[in-house]
Amino acid sequence: MPCPRHRRHTDRIHSVFGSGMTQTETAPVVVTGANRHVGAHMAHRFLDDGFAVIAQYRTTTDEIERLTERGAIGIQGDFADTESTLAVARSIADQADRLRAVIHNASAFSPTEDDPEDAAAQFQAFFEVHMRAPYLLNRVLGPQIRGENDTPGDIVHITDIYADNPGPQYDIYCATKAGLQNLSASFAKQLAPEVKVNAIQPGPISFEDWVDESARQQMLDATPMARTGRPENIYRAVRAFLDNDYQTGAVVAVDGGRRLGG
What we know:
CATH topology: Rossmann fold
Number of strands: 8
Shape: globular
Distance between the termini: 45 Å
Strand order of the largest sheet: 1-4-3-2-5-6-7-8
Largest sheet: 8 strands, mixed
Number of domains: 1
């Protein structure tokens, strides 16, 4: 079951966001996977820019503590479980009458397991996080996602450049990210004109600790910008979608040119 942190803010959100909006009293932005790295950075940046934030997370981290101290609503839930996912969606829906945007950032990433039974379990887990959870959240929350003054709200799916050009050692990851990208296009049709739905394909933003130095250098050598991106690059791409009221069904790569090949 989801575990909202600092639920004392709930009444404030219902009353403040119901009328008399100001820049600091806007409908909240939902960021999934907000407990680390890009998700945490985006949640902090939305707060910096005057948005209220609902931060979904699976495990508590120092970043979640910092976000809730800044006024974000934290909702804990495991997207690998259907009931937990639906409970998260309903808990988010209860926080405010209107949501400005939902940013689907939660992700799982690792090479495909060698053992077929392990790979089957991995496929199920990645499908649940990358496809089923965004699908269910969009279905539940879609009617509440709206911009101000009759402008459209936003859904942004964080996919990957390898959704279009899969790597053989990461076929499960790539396939489920490609599925998420397909869902993004589908929801762009379903939810228009009230909601714009777009996708961002990050390239190398940072490396997991288990990626060795030679693999890191190989990736950088194949990236025209010759460096990894920063979480801020993803945030700026997300904000560009939110700030453009005539862009939906788009897929934008933020990858330093990595998709062009080396």
